[in-house]
Amino acid sequence: MSILLDKNTRVIVTGITGREGKYHTRNMLNAGTNVVGGVTPGKGGQVVEGLPVFDTVAEAIAATSANASCIFVPPAGAADSIMECANAGIKLIVCITENIPVIDMTRAMLVVHEHGATLIGPNCPGMCTPGLGKIGIIPYQIFQPGPVGFISRSGTATYEVVSLLTGAGIGQSTCIGIGGDPIIGSTFADYLEQFESDPQTKVVVMCGEIGGSDEEDAAEYIKTSMHKPVVAFISGRTAPAGKRMGHAGAIISGNTGTAQGKVDALQAAGVPVAETIFEIPGLVEEALAKLS
Amino acid sequence: MAEQKIYLLEGEHFAVKIHEYQAKDILARYGIPVQPGKVASTPEEAEAIARELNGPVVVKAQVYVGGRGKAGGVKFGHTPEEAREAAAKILGMDIKGLTVEKVLVTKMVDIQEEYYLGIIIDRKSQAPVVMVSKAGGMDIEEVAATSPEKIIKEPIDMRWGLRPFEARDILSRAGLPSNVIAKGGVILTALARAFIESDANTAEINPLVLTRDGQVQAADAKIVIDDNGLYRQKEYATWAEPEESNPLEFRAKQEGLTYVKLDGNVGIIGNGAGLVMTTLDMVARSGGKPANFLDIGGGAKADVMEKALRFVASDPDVVGILVNIFGGITRGEEVAKGVIQAQAHLPKGMPIVVRLSGTGADEGKALLKDAGLEWGQDMREGALKIVSAINALS
């Protein structure tokens, strides 16, 4: 079992003819993902990595019955691509693109909600389900199937923690990088809820960072509605207030978004918070041991 | 509409700040009445503008920080000569680390009441949120902290933008008097249009004033532009100035590096914002103090790595550097090549520790070994190694 991805998932890649689009399409195919085509306006009829390219998402869906998409379109057109996908009926949209104007995302989110689609990202590495495939740019080889559901706001920090887990012999059910922007399609709480009802997932690891209050909202959800154990890590403990730490959304504003505030909220919800990423495998092992 | 939590400072930091006179210029383009005035760079220019305005003036420092008045950056000139003297005092003044190079000279108005109008991007409602308060002319964050009930907040439905009836409704709920509702509604509607069309993430009129002769106008304005929108805001992009008070951060921006200056002595370079933040925390836990945050991004080649290392080493506070790379799209051997290329340009004896894993890590480590460079097995070991190497220096 898994969340988001299953054997019926059929993925199209928008921006497939670009350098990144091409490269990651090949990687997704190698991971076993059922990529069925791509979209680049003006390049319909071409073939990339053996896959048909279409001018519009609607055409791609008509020809391939795609139900998921992965967006590699540059920032100026990425929000439009999100809206095109949602409007055409794609239910799972993963947007990798960074630097999308925030006002464009306010419009894109309206369309995503209106059509009942799920958006992961933007400015994210995507998701993967070990043994089944991936949508996005996560390095698939560091994963192995197992009981840990994984949610993170960052990319490389996620790979670091997953490597530690895999190294400790702990596999993962599904991993989602939700993205580092101030406006993102889905949050920690959305996936905690899905992991709560996923039979394969026994423990959830969430890696948050400074900025916003998604981690605090997650803590609230855990306190009120979650029965499975959660282990957390928060990065940016040494980040000064008022400075944007790489991610557009990683910024402490006044008293909001501090690492300590997030750690406190999670601990108050009974979640053990790792001091460093190296403590995460041990905390997961403890949680698993308590279950058996 | 459920009560929304508002992060007042949101947005200001991933963005281009522009001066008050430039913000007023944008507002005027949208038909918002602003006090007549012009910018001066010398006391003589200020005097000439005051003469042209033909009446008492206010001379205001044009710097990117709040609290200019308290810092002595706002003075009155009842005559053109007084305006010149005021400008002479303000020009060259240091306000919170920024030197005043320009002043705005505007006509003094007889103020009856002051209000606050603002729009920011709110993460929770995933929309621009309008804020209006009767408590104008004050620091809005202070109002939010002490009497939040005085601020009326309402998200803009991005399908329509802010409609005039909604604007009037917000003003009325904020308790603005009847004689301000109609004119203020037009102004707030225009402010929302300016916000959306300019790719702003903050737009404020504080204060919006009601004058004794019944006019409603913007006495002060602030607009911050989302830097991700600059590609289509070509004119505003040219308005960007060295906003950061830290010269290293400004230079980094020019060189295309994602860099934040911190107050320690351990230089930090990594790939991916989350990983770099985690590395900072790890160095701090290992007893070191990070000097900076530098993210080389995904897929960096040797020349980017070299540039990043030389840049971090050019910070006089830095005595040693930790490079932490988890290879994916970024390849280990490219990182190693960049480090080796940079080596000749770094201060003699400056310890460098490189930690590589993932794609190309083995090839990279072999290159580093041949060049006699230190590397760490994992992030923790890398952090401990650089901290002990720095401690060994003193």
Low-confidence stretches of chain B: 1-13
Q: From the 3D coordinates, which CATH architecture of the largest domain in chain B would you assign?
A: 3-Layer(aba) Sandwich
Order of neighbouring strands in the sheet with most strands of chain A = 3-4-2-1-5-6-7
Which percent range fits the helix content of chain B? 25-40%
Question: What's the helical proportion of residues of chain A?
Answer: 25-40%
Identify the CATH homologous superfamily of the largest domain in chain A: Succinyl-CoA synthetase domains
Description of the molecule:
The complex is a heterodimer of chains A (292) and B (394). With 292 residues, chain A is of the alpha/beta class. Chain A folds into 2 domains: 11-120, NAD(P)-binding Rossmann-like Domain (Rossmann fold); 143-291, Succinyl-CoA synthetase domains (Rossmann fold). Chain A has helices at residues 19-30, 57-64, 75-88, 102-114, 156-167, 188-196, 214-225, 259-268, 280-291, and strands at 11-14, 35-39, 47-48, 51-54, 68-71, 92-95, 118-120, 126-129, 133-136, 145-152, 172-177, 203-209, 230-235, 273-274. Chain A has a 7-stranded mixed β-sheet with strand order 3-4-2-1-5-6-7, with helices on both faces. Chain A has a 7-stranded mixed β-sheet with strand order 9-8-11-10-12-13-14, with helices on both faces. In chain A, helix 1 links the parallel strand 1 (11-14) and strand 2. In chain A, helix 3 (75-88) runs parallel beside helix 4 and helix 7 (214-225) packs parallel to helix 8 (259-268). Chain A is globular, with a radius of gyration of 18 Å. The two termini of chain A are 20 Å apart. Chain B has 394 residues and is of the alpha+beta class. Chain B folds into 3 domains: 36-107, Dna Ligase, domain 1; 110-237, ATP-grasp fold, B domain (D-amino Acid Aminotransferase, Chain A, domain 1); 247-393, Succinyl-CoA synthetase domains (Rossmann fold). Helix content of chain B is 36%, strand content 26%. Chain B is built from 13 helices and 19 strands. In chain B, strands 1, 8, 9, 10, 11, 12 and 13 form a 7-stranded antiparallel β-sheet that branches. In chain B, helix 2 packs antiparallel against helix 3 (80-90) and helix 10 (302-313) packs across helix 11 (332-343). The termini of chain B are far apart. The model of chain B is unreliable at 1-13 (pLDDT under 50). At the A-B interface, helix 4 and helix 5 of A face helix 9 of B.
